[in-house]
């Protein structure tokens, strides 16, 4: 006798799959464009001729042979170094060893659709502190010539290539391995609801398996997604900034307050995320999205190599902020961080214990789904007021670069008033490049705005399905998405 099939199951079988990121086209576009974009940034804003390279300011008379010299083009074969690849893989292995040997907090994640809860070993913060302690000792002993710093700056392009290759390989590995997921498996492996479209490119991009894990000899089991989210890429973020500080010292013999400020607040950003590592287990990245190229490339390449553009720029074109400048960007940072942290803390406190007397002043709306939606306090201002604070934090990263842009004059050139002179005799001036450098140093602000708007849209669609009419009522009460009275 054939098994009975409910109407609900039949309806679900014929539901149209909902693509994100513009579907297959978006997946293909992002997968092929982002890496070349980072190479373009690396070459066009350089320490040889300027930021942008002088020839790029005159596209009508552009000579490719001249441009290659200006950007230090190493040839296609020069983009990859097997030695650098080996050291990069050694860095990943080192991160895995710290994950295993350092003390850790053992916890469980949220309940999966299959009813299971995965165990996690959390010690990203202590792993980063241990790594930085080693680098600090090396810097004390050898100064700005500490081999880690010189290796990073001397092989920047090859390091970019190594991490690009690893991100593509990792995305391919987890995609192929996802086909071994069987229903009812004891490891609680499951496929991501948004990664089973049946289109190879899209599923490879978005992530087919929800929480892929792998067991390594002597190290044990590692949750690939959680590991990549807060370890190699985030650690590289800090190390790249430190390397650029050391580079500025080697070029000029001093270090400016602007590059120290940028590196310090970005390090704090990483520390904050790693210290609050348990919170990442409730984020959409972990609970909803599969692990594919989107997260692999984002974690290992996009974050460390795009987010450090400001320090890379300041290493070659020093800027002094002075007390008032530091106070100004510091104030922007303080306000934005307060909005971000206080709003998130209020939300988490309400979710944990909505009956807490300290939250009695907050108003909320009951939904048919049994959930309470805050309509006062921080969350009565905008539906994602935390995103506003998060985006505002991006500005202090870029503001220290000012109206960015510079041109490098060769050693022996006639002295130019207002130029900054390197120890080797080269001069750095704003010149006609002034203003054009913001393409590189403010890209993070633009990108982050797009990212947060996209996240807001995804969340709106998710909540609309979950709450139905209640969500429409809620939106009439809390009208603004992110920025009050604007958006």
Automatic annotation (TrEMBL):
The residues forming the signal peptide are none
Q: What is the lineage of its organism?
A: Eukaryota, Fungi, Dikarya, Ascomycota, Pezizomycotina
Q: Which GO terms describe its molecular function?
A: Delta14-sterol reductase activity
Q: How does it sit in the membrane?
A: Multi-pass membrane protein
Q: What is this protein called?
A: Delta(14)-sterol reductase
Identify the InterPro entries for this entry. ERG24_DHCR-like, Sterol_reductase_CS
Q: Transmembrane residues, as ranges?
A: 21-42, 84-102, 122-144, 156-176, 251-271, 291-309, 321-340, 435-453
Coiled-coil spans are none
Q: Which PANTHER family match?
A: DELTA(14)-STEROL REDUCTASE, DELTA(14)-STEROL REDUCTASE TM7SF2
Q: Which UniProt keywords apply?
A: Lipid biosynthesis, Lipid metabolism, Membrane, Oxidoreductase, Steroid biosynthesis, Steroid metabolism, Sterol biosynthesis, Sterol metabolism, Transmembrane, Transmembrane helix
Keyword Membrane in the entry? The reply is yes
| Superkingdom of the source species | Eukaryota
In the UniProt record, which is one GO cellular component term? endoplasmic reticulum membrane
Provide the protein's localization.
Membrane
One GO BP annotation here? ergosterol biosynthetic process
As for family, the record states: Belongs to the ERG4/ERG24 family.
Determine if Transcription regulation is one of this entry's keywords. no
């Amino acid at each position: 006798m054939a098994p009975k099939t409910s109407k609900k199951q039949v309806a679900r079988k014929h539901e149209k799959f909902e693509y994100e990121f513009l579907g297959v086209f978006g997946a293909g576009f992002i997968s092929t464009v982002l890496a070349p974009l980072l190479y373009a940034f690396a070459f066009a804003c350089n320490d040889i001729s300027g930021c942008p390279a002088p020839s790029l300011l005159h596209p009508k008379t552009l000579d490719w042979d001249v441009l290659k010299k200006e950007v230090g083009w190493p040839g296609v074969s020069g983009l990859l170094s097997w030695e650098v690849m080996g050291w990069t893989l050694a860095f990943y292995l080192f991160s895995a060893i710290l994950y295993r040997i350092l003390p850790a907090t053992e916890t469980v994640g949220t309940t999966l659709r299959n009813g299971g809860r995965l165990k996690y070993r959390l010690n990203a913060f202590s792993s980063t502190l241990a790594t930085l302690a080693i680098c600090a000792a090396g810097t004390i002993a050898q100064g700005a010539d500490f081999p880690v710093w010189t290796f990073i700056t001397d092989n920047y392009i090859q390091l970019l290539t190594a991490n690009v290759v690893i991100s593509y390989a990792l995305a391919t590995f987890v995609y192929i391995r996802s086909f071994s997921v069987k229903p009812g498996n004891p490891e609680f492996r499951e496929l991501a609801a948004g990664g089973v479209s049946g289109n190879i490119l899209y599923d490879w991009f978005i992530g087919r398996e929800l929480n892929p894990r792998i067991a390594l000899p002597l190290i044990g089991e590692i949750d690939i997604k959680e590991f990549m989210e807060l370890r190699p890429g985030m650690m590289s973020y800090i190390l790249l900034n430190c390397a650029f500080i050391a580079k500025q010292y080697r070029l000029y013999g001093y270090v400016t307050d602007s590059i120290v400020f940028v590196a310090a607040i970005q390090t704090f950003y990483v520390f904050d995320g790693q210290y609050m590592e348990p919170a990442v287990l409730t984020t959409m990245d972990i609970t909803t999205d599969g692990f594919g190229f989107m997260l692999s490339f984002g974690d290992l390449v996009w974050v460390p190599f795009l987010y450090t553009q400001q320090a890379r720029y300041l290493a070659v074109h020093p800027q002094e902020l002075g007390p008032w400048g530091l106070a100004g960007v510091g104030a922007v940072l303080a306000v934005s961080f307060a909005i971000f942290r206080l709003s998130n803390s209020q939300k988490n406190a309400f979710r944990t214990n909505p009956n807490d007397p300290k939250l009695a002043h907050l108003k909320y709306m009951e939904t048919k789904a049994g959930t309470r939606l805050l309509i006062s306090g921080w969350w009565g201002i905008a539906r994602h007021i935390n995103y506003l604070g998060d985006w505002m934090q991006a500005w202090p990263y870029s503001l220290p670069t000012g109206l960015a842009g510079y041109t490098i004059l060769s050693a022996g050139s006639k002295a130019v008033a207002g130029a900054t002179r390197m120890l080797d005799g080269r001069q750095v001036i704003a010149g006609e490049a002034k203003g054009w450098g913001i393409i590189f140093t403010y890209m993070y602000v633009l990108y982050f705005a797009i990212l947060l708007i996209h996240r807001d849209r995804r969340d709106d669609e998710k909540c609309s399905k979950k709450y139905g009419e209640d969500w429409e009522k809620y939106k009439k009460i809390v009208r603004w998405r992110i920025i009050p009275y604007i958006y």
